[in-house]
Amino acid sequence: MKNILKKGLLWCLILSVICTIHPVPTDAAVKTTKLKAPVVREWKKTKDSRWPILPADGLEYTVTWKRVAGASGYQAKVEVLDAGEWGPWRIIKTKKCSHSEAGSTVARSKIKVRAYKIVNGKKKYGPWSKIKISRRWG
Hints:
The strands form 2 sheets. Strands 3, 4, 5, 7, 8 and 9 form a 6-stranded antiparallel sheet that branches. This protein has a 3-stranded antiparallel sheet with strand order 1-2-6, with no helix packed on it. It has one helix at 2-21; strands spanning 44-46, 60-64, 73-82, 85-86, 90-94, 98-102, 108-119, 122-125, 132-133. A hairpin with a 2-residue loop joins strand 3 and strand 4. Helix content is 14%, strand content 35%. It is an alpha+beta fold.
């Protein structure tokens, strides 16, 4: 009985020495991701027939940004100026490098964008771009 106990303690001691000499990193399976902030271009008027009910002026306003290398998609925050007050930020997730707002009911709009990459099933976000405010429409 004493021999079994001594062998068990000896194996525990050996395992603890091995673990202290060769520690297993907790982030061994985590890839590092370094994403840059997208560069947002100017808002432009574009005509599009995708809208089920056409806006008052028959146009939509589109903003584009440069593609970020290694990004899985983009998260954009859009805020519109309506009746003299900025509304709440709307969060839009997209894999495209553009976003559109419909019609002339919106006086102005602003957007900021960040890229994300999916690493080990979790989204890793890059920094936000600079806010791009549209010129007055209409």
